Amino acid sequence: MRDPTKSVHHPIADESEYASLSVPTHRASTIVFTDAQSYASRGQRDLDSYSYGLHGTPTQRVLEAQLTALEGGAKTVLLPSGQAAIAVIFLTVLGPDDHVLIPDTAYPPVPGFCRGFLEPRGIEWSVYAPGIGPEIENLIRPETKLIWTESPGSTTMEVEDIPAIAKVAKARGILSGIDNTWATPLLFKPLAHGIDFSMQALTKYPGGHSDLLMGSVTVADLDLRRRLRDTMRMLGLGVAPDAVSLVLRGLETMAVRLAHVGRVATEIAWDLEARGIGEVLFPALPSSPGHEFWARDFSGSSGLFSVVLPDAANARLDVALDGLKVFSIGASWGGTHSLIAPMSVENARQNAHPRNTRTILRVNIGLEDPEDLRADLNGFFEKLA
Ligand SMILES: *Cc1c(COP(=O)(O)O)cnc(C)c1O
Q1: Which residue's CA lies nearest to atom 3 of ligand 1?
Q2: Are 265 and 305 in contact (CB under 8 A)?
Q3: Does the beta carbon of 154 lie inside 6 Å of ligand 1?
Q4: Using CA atoms, how far apart are residues 179 and 107, in angstroms rounded to an integer?
Q5: How far is CA 37 from CA 34, 44, 48, 81, 331, in A?
Q6: Closest residue (by CA) to atom 5 of ligand 1?
């Protein structure tokens, strides 16, 4: 072989005595085959095998298996974002004239997807109030094929009675799914409660460092995995190996990070509630909507909560936000940095509620020293008062 060929073809190094604690990052678009027959029959390969980079590398299989183990499922698929994971579930289950139920408290891009993408393609949707529980039965139509849940709900943090909803769905032969991003499978295991699709934004706690986007869906049924993978193949959806590596790294510390931010967020949320600064929405507080379901079904809290501000605070909000020193202003949460984001749910909600017209501060507790966080928050709320 001449030099240009030697430059292209890598020699094979002996790995027989090599062992590492980290998972190797396999980057590949092309997968090569040992002989003509294995190339010709590549279409028959198992979904866990390899045929094209888009459908996964060994790095990706490790993350899929690790999430499957945490969720207590059968298989996991990875998508380029949390929102893509939700969209793929909906597109897998729903066809023309079908109907989907979503909570009024769903992550706002979800009703956006229903209105802007599904509706023009003949798929119907309607919303339910998050506390509905078994009464969801009354909203089911003959065309209903999917009940979507999110618990706690985005921004307003209502915990749903997931076992009750899953039970109704099962009895009526309807598939159910959940956005479990707040809890992660460490704090709530949806499949054990009868949910069919357990989705999370790996962008948040699993990645854990605000430097990647990814989503996952775990199922207990191999046929659902096959259907999800069919949708992904047709839409050309896959994930980048380097981002997968970062999630694998993030996962190693997730339990310790979650335990810490859950404890600090609980202390701060109790304190803010006791000081009467505004309604504090956090599942661990007995006053928070759906607290009884959290206490029954969850094994702890993560580090995200909300504070509903009195109307009088709005005039001083920008000055207070601009004075923050430790907290940054930002929305995507679950990383090491503490964040505050002023939100309004008014345009996203269909059911009237007094807090819909208020400014709601969403607070993400990060890994900074809790005393620095308290001091920053004290200064912030003094400026608001
Ligand atoms: C962030 C988030 C998503 C979307 O995740 P992306 O990876 O940013 O698309 C979905 N659901 C919830 C509850 C989220 O907070």
Answers
A1: 82
A2: yes
A3: yes
A4: 9
A5: 8, 12, 19, 36, 51
A6: 82
Candidate from 88, 102, 155, 179 with most ligand 1 atoms within 8 A of CB, to mutate: 179
Burial 230-240 (b: 16+ CB within 10 A, else e): ebbeeeebbbb
Q: How far is the CA of 201 from the centre of ligand 1 (A)?
A: 5
Helices (H), 313-369: 314-322
Return the amino acid letter for 58: P
Ligand 1 centre distance from Cα of residue 83 (Å):
6
Q: Output DSSP code: residue 76.
A: E
What radius of gyration do the chain's Cα atoms show? Answer: 23
| pLDDT tens column, 182-194 | 999 999 999 999 9
The 8-class DSSP code of residue 116 comes to I
Q: How far is the CA of 82 from the centre of ligand 1 (A)?
A: 5
Beta bridge partners of 340: 329, 363
Positions in the chain whose pLDDT score sits under 50: none
What are the beta bridge partners of residue 102? 127
Domains plus CATH for the chain? 36-248 (3.40.640.10), 253-384 (3.90.1150.10)
| Most distant pair of Cα atoms in the chain: their distance | 78
Any ligand 1 atom below 6 A from CB of 215: yes
Distance in Å, CA 141 to ligand 1 centroid: 28
14 CA distance to ligand 1 middle (Å): 42
Q: Where are the beta strands (DSSP E) in 104-229?
A: 124-128, 144-150, 175-179, 197-201, 215-219
Reported pTM: 0.97
Which residue has tokens 């980048």? 240
- φ and ψ at 76, to 5 degrees? -130, 145
Strand 144-150 relative to strand 99-103, pairing: parallel
pLDDT tens digits, one per residue of 45-70: 999 999 999 999 999 999 999 999 99
- pLDDT above 70 covers a percentage of the chain that reads 100
